[in-house]
Amino acid sequence: MADRRYTRTHEWVTVDGKHATVGITDFAQSQLGDVVFLELPSAGRKLAARETFGVIESVKAASDLYAPVAGRITEVNEKLAAKPELINSDPYGEGWILKLELGGELPPDLMDEAEYKKVSGAAAS
Amino acid sequence: MTANSALKRTPLYDRHVALGARMVDFGGWEMPQQYSSIRDEHLAVRRVAGLFDVSHMGRFRLAGDSTFQFLQHLVTNDLAPLTHGQAQYNLLCNESGGIVDDLVVYRGSEGFFVVVNASNRESDLRWFREHAPRDVEIEDRTFELGLIAFQGPRAQELLPCEGLEAIPYFGFGQGDVAGIHALISRTGYTGEDGFELFISSERLGEAWDAILRHGGSAGVLPAGLGARDATRLEAALRLWGNDMDETVNPYEAGLGWTVKLDKGDFVGRDALQRVKAEGPRRKLIGLKTVPGDIARHGAAVKAEGKPIGVITSGTHSFFLGYPIALAMVEAASFRVGDKVAVDVRGREAPAEIVKLPFYRGSARSATSPARS
User: Fold this and answer.
1) pLDDT tens-digit profile of B50-64?
2) ipTM, 2 dp
3) In a domain, A44, yes or no
4) Which of B33, B63, B106, B364 is most buried, judging by how many CB atoms fall within 10 Å of its CB?
5) What is B58-138+249-279's CATH topology?
6) CA B83-B237-B23 angle, 5° bins
7) What's the rounded Cα separation, in Å, for the pair B52 and B36?
8) Separation CA A87–CA A51 (nearest Å)
């Protein structure tokens, strides 16, 4: 498994060759509270980096989801329709949201875990 | 989420943190939003029982010869039928009939006790003191006396306390909870049967631990503000600051049953008499939407393309399995079953007007209402 990279908007991405998997971070799910619904695009759609691709509804609020990298959606996690709580219980595993076929370079501002910890730690305190 | 030293903490703060709660600012208090998950805590309250820290709510003791007359002049409901050991849901209104706060009034053998919303504690205290005659003493007991709520269909069975069956709905008495002295009131804010326990701040933590220990294997959970908001909304219990405030009168809020115009003069009576005679211009209704379409506070409500009001409270009901909302709308002829539209994330989502409450829990079924 490749290293996980993070955005300032609290998504994560792992890249394996031309393929990327996207989700939201453990910090994000804990801030959102219980997730009740996701509005997600269909496979085939092309996303630009930082483009809004969906909405996540928690008991507290609705939040936009942003693409950490550019690419074409190859798969959407169908399990989330029936079990959105997977985002809370396993944000880096079963709670993944999209799989993409990479289209272009990775944005330079993706953070590694240490950097992201600083950002989310500052937001949490 | 901000560690703000200006926020007040209840005597149970350290326990909330030790239980892993996410703490949030609520009415100037640092309170638990959730411990494990709002869903689990919500369902525990509906199926077994949940334990809430509600020590942030304001608690005043009123004593003095003319306390009854004073309170009777300030609240909308009629205190005359209240006997010692009975509590009553009540409203404070201003001269224009707007709701200053909602509260529960307790009549004890040594005077009266009131519980008010946390965010209004200081303004209510001023309101009481401005109106009080000289002989009425009003003491803020919020910090000396803790308050926890044990709510759920199995609350009576699972609270480590004898003699609970003798306390009727909206009644209260003294007792020992796990050996700790408490004033025990059969009241709550969830729609379920249950008890609110007034316990000295020093011993509140012991009682909290004992109740959780005693009920843990049965599925009792500590429950945070998230579960509290969801359960109160399912039971259509109004939240001051969301569903009503000084700009809303009791008839609009659907609380006309708490206004006793024939009890004698009281603050706001003339205005409320006019509203009643003319009929309220707006009313609070219940809405149901399809899963995913959560209508949030402030969202516009439309009928046939025309704005008719706004959402005052909305959430996803884990118990019912769909989103529910309260909306303040123009008091035209809307009926249960009618279809309207609500703004959800910038689009118009279909909503259906449903009967309130959204869910009727075990409250009242355990014993007969105090007012019967």
Assistant:
1) 999 999 999 999 999
2) 0.76
3) yes
4) B106
5) Alpha-Beta Plaits (3.30.70)
6) 110
7) 13
8) 20
